[in-house]
Amino acid sequence: MKAIRIHQYGGPEAMQLDELPPPTPGPWEVLIRVEAAGVNFLDIYQRSGAYKSDLPLVLGQEGAGTVEAVGPGVTDLSIGDRVGWVNIIGSYATHLVAPAERIVRIPDGIDTQTATAAMLQGMTAHYLAYSMVQLGADDACLVHAAAGGVGQLLCQMLKMRGSRVIGTVSTEEKARVARAAGADEIIFYTRDDFEAETKRLTNGRGVTVVYDSVGKDTFDKSLNSLRLRGSLVLFGQSSGAVAPVDPQVLNVKGSLWLTRPTLAHYVATNEELRSRADDVLGWIAAGKLRVAVDRTYPLNQAADAHRALAGRETMGKVLLIP
Fold this sequence. Notes:
The chain is of the alpha/beta class. It contains 9 helices and 16 strands. It has 2 domains: 176 residues, Alpha-Beta Complex (Quinone Oxidoreductase, Chain A, domain 1); 128 residues, 3-Layer(aba) Sandwich (Rossmann fold), CATH 3.40.50.720.
């Protein structure tokens, strides 16, 4: 098999295409031929060393493909099944061995690339929209990077919940994409102060929740954009890590809530994983949720994929095709 590995932390050039022995599934495992792997900021954090792992490391956390072999004890998956996964390291490869209980079936009518794009980002948007804050028609939400992969899906799901959505973007093209995903108002963060604009759009009250995947560059103003007892959901750090926070700040600014969640903790059980996957994939199959694949790269161009994502050039999912 072939795989993209890092042998030391660094920039995109730290990734190299290695040839490895073909894997064999053990008890309760399956061997999957990877047909698409998702590219995420999480991969960039691992490649750079912001998130530490044992090296050498095959990158990639999500993908979709076809089961080629099953290990002893596997009864609910068969050779030829089309499947997807998330939070299984080693997905930047032609093949992957994975625990059968962490695999989900892809419904008929959903192609492999769409299914891959729905795994990490779709289920991330799902837990953000449905497991973080009680929302209704009277609630306004601020979504940073609203034209990104998670941003587009999150906007759609928040509109399913009946909430008002304010999205931040950098360009007119991204504004068009965010509006198509359901954003009611757009703030151009490169031109306007998003804190002031959020307060203006909410008549000075602020929003119920800010969904912030940017981190260092937006954190303080995100807190200031919240209403009394509002919630800041910090689920990424594309601009860098946030500095240490004095909890007293949350009191002074209005008894605010701050959380730093990650998808792994919201699909921790097999039941929760498959419930979220069933919702996301079911909505896609029914035409209720639109997934955008921005661009694809062959496996040996993983460095270019990372550069495009880190440079905020993309509006939707980036995939590697082994």
